[in-house]
Structure formats: C-alpha cells, structure tokens
Specification:
Layout: H1 12-21, E1 26-27, E2 29-33, E3 40-44, E4 47-51, E5 56-62, H2 68-73, E6 76-81, H3 87-92, E7 105-106, E8 114-115, E9 120-132, E10 135-147, E11 152-156, E12 159-163
Antiparallel strand pairs: 1-11, 2-3, 2-6, 4-5, 5-10, 6-9, 7-8, 9-10, 11-12
C-alpha cells in the first residue's frame, strides 16, 4: 500500500489526468470472490490478457476499495465481462459492500462464486500480486473459461455504452 493516504479532494491536475485516462474506452467487468461476509462482487475496467501459455490475465484493485482486504487476499476469483444490458449490475458492484444474492451466482466444484450471466467468464487462481502506486495488480492463472455472443458493456468518459453486433 502507499505510505501516504490519498488526498480527500483531488487536485485539478489529478482530475484532468483522470479525465485524460477516461478517453480510453474500456469493457466493464465484475470480479467475484469469497470473503468472510460471503461472496462479493466488484466492478472493474482494468482488465487485460497477459499470456496465452500459460493462460494469464490481470486486473487492478484500488487500495481505497471497501473490498480491498477480501480481493487482495483471494486465492481464487472469477472475472466476468458484462453484456450490454447489465448496466445495473455494473453500478451495483461499483461501490460499497456488494454481497452476491443466492440466485446471482453458481459454483463449479470448489471454485469461486461465478455470476450466472456474462459475455465471458474466467475462473482463476491467484498467480501473482504486485503493489504499484495506489493499486494492486492481480494476475490470475485461468483454470476455466466460457464465452457467448452478444454486445459488450463499455465505459467511456464516465458513461456506460455498448459495442458489438447487438448494440
């Protein structure tokens, strides 16, 4: 974790930097993992593939997240690429403690909790964790995956959108 807490009110330069980063349109994902409170979800847009062999992906966890301790320590997690129609789910898991409801997830064996609907899903074991600035980079080794056709939920300049044939 960083040694100094982030400022309560970001500087104008920080706001401008964040806006510049927002010029890059991204997909919207929800990561799920178990916690002491039960299965949790967390909306992210910092997802990328790392390697085909071995199958590795990564995502970034903000140390200011209310769910930091659960996701930073999770040995297994699932990453879900959301379909265009899941704006409400993305918003729900973006803030606060977002426990999964019983009808929202399933499990394969002793795997992580998995959302029942996603454009693509990657079930992972934690491979590496790297603290960088105010985020932790979490690298996952993909143990199983699924995908389906459809339009993807996107995020650009603070707004949701969609991309794909059905969009």
């Amino acid at each position: 974790m960083t040694l100094e807490p982030p400022p309560l009110a970001p500087s104008a330069d920080t706001v401008a930097y964040r806006r510049a980063l927002g010029a890059f349109a991204t997909g919207v994902c929800v990561v799920t993992a178990d916690s002491d409170q039960g299965p949790l979800g967390l909306t992210i847009n910092s997802f990328t593939s790392v390697s085909l062999e071995p199958r590795l992906i990564l995502w970034c966890l903000d140390e200011r997240s209310e769910r930091w301790s659960a996701f930073a320590a999770a040995g297994r997690f699932a990453l879900h690429i959301l379909p265009a129609e899941d704006r409400e789910k993305a918003a729900r898991f973006a803030r606060g403690v977002a426990l999964l409801k019983d009808d929202e997830f399933e499990r394969c064996g002793d795997g992580p909790p998995c959302l029942t609907e996603a454009l693509a899903r990657f079930e992972c074991a934690a491979h590496d964790r790297i603290q960088m600035g105010d985020h932790m980079v979490i690298v996952g080794r993909v143990e199983a995956f699924t995908s389906t056709d459809g339009a993807a939920l996107t995020f650009w300049r603070g707004r949701y959108g969609s991309l794909g044939d059905d969009a």
